[in-house]
Amino acid sequence: MPPKKKSSVPAADTNSRNQTQTQSQATTPRRLTRSSSNLASAKSNPPNTPNTAASPTKTSADDMGSAVSKAKAIKQSRKSRKSNGTEAAAVESNGVTSKPDQTIPSEEPATPNGKGKRKTTTTPPEQKTTTAKKPKVSKSAEDNDGVDKDIVVVPKVVSKPAKAGKKSQPKNADEWFDVYASAEDPTQIDVPGIIRLLEDLSVKFESAAIYILCWKLGLPTMGSIPREQWNSGMRKHNVANNAQLLKTLGTWLQQTKPVSPPTDDFLSFFKYMFQFSKNVPEARTIAAENATAVLGFVLDPRTYDLKYDPETADPLKWEDHPYPHAVPFLEFLTEKQPVKVINKDQWESFLPFNRSVEYMLGNYDPNGAWPALYDQYVEWRKERDGLTIGPKDGPDTES
């Protein structure tokens, strides 16, 4: 057989094929750190290969590999730009803008050769600053034309409500009377109505205030306040409501307060209370039990105070009392019970007796013109306190 012919391909062609394979391998995409705008140029210019002989021509395989590399690079660049646009939209939707001079890293999807993710740089979000709203002005949403408008809020004028629990003042004494009038008899203020009146005035029933009021209104007896006396008395003293009544009562109490010697106001009030304490106006006496209770607050200067409270008031000693015989005399009526009723002479003799006779009974005259009840009182004091002064023979007990 004839010998095979040797390949006529020169060594230069062999080197050209090796260089083409090297270039094909070099065009394989790899991880880049350049910005997305330079990716196309980076892919089109493969890195330098080792110093070899340059090939005079490129094969069709080389052209195909270069075209594929460029296509991949362009596709990758588009993905990068799309990713950057998505991140920017997400940041914008959260109300944050980015600063141009700062960057933050972000990861891209894996490259076509599966060699992991490539990092790109995006600008960090900038926190949106807010300013305080001006008072009374609110920003409305976009109107139909898409333009924001400022809406000025006009404050609504609201009338000041009345204080809770504050009652309206009556227009006249007659309306004022109706507030406390009895439901069964609207022409009278009965005992429950009087108690409600004192509660509204914050005055205790045990004080002398209600009796001073009845005295000023000219009521003949206790039990109720007629409409006619109420209206005429309030007009006489220029009193139209509870506030004025409370102030006037304070003045009346100070003017009538028991002192020694007694004032004309107290003498008049003291005599009035005997008549007022009767069960009926025609009666000539009052029960001893009722007389003791009435004398107890009429003679006590502590009860002539709007703030008087019997539960907290300090006891009054005889040394401090304007009428020293008041304390032992009331004890005598309660313990000894010498009489069942008190008449007008016995009632009205008490004030002169206190002015004339000392507390220790040293100047007591058994022949004086005192009612027999006071002679009995002196005898009782002698036995209880060991006194040797007084009438030798005790008087008869009055009935």
Automatic annotation (TrEMBL):
Q: Where is this region: Disordered?
A: 1-148
- Where does the record place Polar residues bias? 94-105
Composition bias type Basic and acidic residues, residue spans: 139-148
Annotated InterPro entries: DCN-prot, DCN1-like_PONY, PONY_dom
Gene3D superfamilies annotated for this entry? Cullin, PONY binding domain (1.10.238.200), EF-hand (1.10.238.10)
Recorded coiled-coil stretches: none
Query: Where is the sequence biased in composition, kind Basic residues?
Result: 72-82
Biological process annotations from GO:
protein neddylation
DCUN1 domain: which residues? 168-382
**One GO molecular-function entry:** ubiquitin-like protein binding
Q: Which GO terms describe its cellular component?
A: ubiquitin ligase complex
Bias (Low complexity): 19-28, 40-59, 121-130
Question: Which PANTHER family does this one have?
Answer: DEFECTIVE IN CULLIN NEDDYLATION PROTEIN (PTHR12281:SF12), RP42 RELATED (PTHR12281)
Purpose: Neddylation of cullins play an essential role in the regulation of SCF-type complexes activity.
Put simply, this protein is called Defective in cullin neddylation protein
Source organism of the structure: Arthrobotrys musiformis
Q: Which lineage do the record's taxonomy fields give for this organism?
A: Eukaryota, Fungi, Dikarya, Ascomycota, Pezizomycotina
